[in-house]
Design goal:
Length: 334
Amino acid sequence: MRDPVTGFEYPEAWVRACGSPALLADVERGLALLTADGTVLRRGFTTGTAAAAACKAAILSLARDVERVTLTLPCGIPVEIPARGRNGEGRCVKDAGDHPSDVTGGLEFVARAEASEGELTVEFGEGIGRYGEGVPGHAPGSPAVSETALSSILGASLEGLEEACFHGAAVMLRVPMGREAAARTLNPRLGIEGGISLLGTTGLVEPWDEHLVASVLERVRASDCPVLTTGRTGLRFSRLLFPGREVILVGGRIREALEASDGEAILCGLPGLILREINPRILEGTGCRTVEELLARGGWREAVEPTLAAFHGRMPGVRVVLFDRSGRVLGGIP
């Protein structure tokens, strides 16, 4: 059995250990994960996916009432999501799956659509964050919506127009409790004001509990010099850079994964989480709020090189490869 999201081949022993065989259908579809002890954990949906569902439901409801919508996630998986649409208003409650600490879980996304003779337009309103002054790469006041999330929202909305037989529509998206939820995220520290971010590389939120931690660490222990990465972007580029090695998504469990590898591994991914893990004080005295901002200000020689040198002294068997979101290698420890 293969996970269509990560490409991981589940060991037969894990499949046999599953006490709820009926749930394995979701594992095969990529909507759930199987752990080493046979536990099945549901993946949830990202803020970008919930936003896309609300927008599509709003547009479809201009022609008919809607209870569910179909979407193709950025990872390529088709899904059907509960999303209620009535008289041009669509609502979708974000499902966090088996990720109890997802603070955006349960938020309601509300879209209002009006048919138009022009092109499709989508605006972002209440509860959706906007970038403040001085955030590298983002114009002040622009909505905190990632490229992948925006593509999902526009794609789902265009599908809705085609299915409802409308030429165009004006859509306004809001998250009524987004401002309150954002206060419990990193957005205030990142310079994002007034609400949550709309994100999602795959469209799915990974579950996380102790069963999954044990399974990830078991994979690390069983691998010869595995490639450890922290997110979906890292997973994609790590496979391209190291096609002959086992690439394992460890999220924020970098320290535990390195311990499980006995100090022989390749740490590969975007610089933010990796550098903060190997040097929690890397931003002290720099005046920067994020590693991204530090790098944009030319802080590689000043802060990153000493951090990597010190880490290499502590863990000489670990190679580090850092790249940006386009896959361009920035540097690391050879």
